[in-house]
Amino acid sequence: xxxxxxxxxxxxxxxxxxxxxxxxxxxxxxxxxxxxxxxxxxxxxxxxxxxxxxxxxxxxxxxxxxxxxxxxxxxxxxxxxxxxxxxxxxxxxxxxxxxxxxxxxxxxxxxxxx
Amino acid sequence: xxxxxxxxxxxxxxxxxxxxxxxxxxxxxxxxxxxxxxxxxxxxxxxxxxxxxxxxxxxxxxxxxxxxxxxxxxxxxxxxxxxxxxxxxxxxxxxxxxxxxxxxxxxxxxxxxxxxxxxxxxxxxxxxxxxxxxxxxxxxxxxxxxxxxxxx
Lengths: 114, 152
Known about the structure:
The complex is a heterodimer of chains A (114) and B (152). Chain A is an alpha/beta fold and 114 residues long. Helix content of chain A is 41%, strand content 32%. Chain A is globular. The termini of chain A are far apart. The relative contact order of chain B is 0.20. Chain B has a single domain (6-138), classed as Histidine kinase-like ATPase, C-terminal domain (Heat Shock Protein 90).
């Protein structure tokens, strides 16, 4: 299924609910455009909700890292929420859990932003 | 009883669409071979990464070049080979994606994932040039009585 993203805003925080696959091609491009768009709009606190993303390949992982560095370069914070088991496992074996702030509860995630 | 090996060989165009196609073909073979859902996912993803590697780095998206894939079923294992028409490479040339200094790199994890998801993974120089990625997954143990492979 092609990646779809819907953005909600709670205060200063933009939450993007993603659904589908983050893979080489449209999925990765969609993620990149969404995050860059939010940063260009001045958003600096971004929560990526991966509740319905059950598949991510190396290109998608690279795009998540790129999103993280894009937001950080703009002095912002990007966090991940609600990883599915497969995405969780991929981030674990690639050691990216040491890079990302991964949250499992939306309320807690919102209050964790500075 | 003599075990019969089976072999499939497919030539793909150097197109983005070939990545999904190769993955779906291998996942069907893996399913028919008795692998469970998790292993089918891992085999499919490893092959996906192999074909991405051939598409992006080996053939450098050159439509004039081809990507060749073979799938072999032996009594104890499934072997997938992905061959490109690039220059080939050595694993020692590839930076470790788990090293602290490489964690924020946006590429370079495909080979690592192939190795992580398969039981054996090697890179060779294909005959005539290019890289040959060889991925092996051990078949699940057969269900006693019928000789068929079945996952737990």
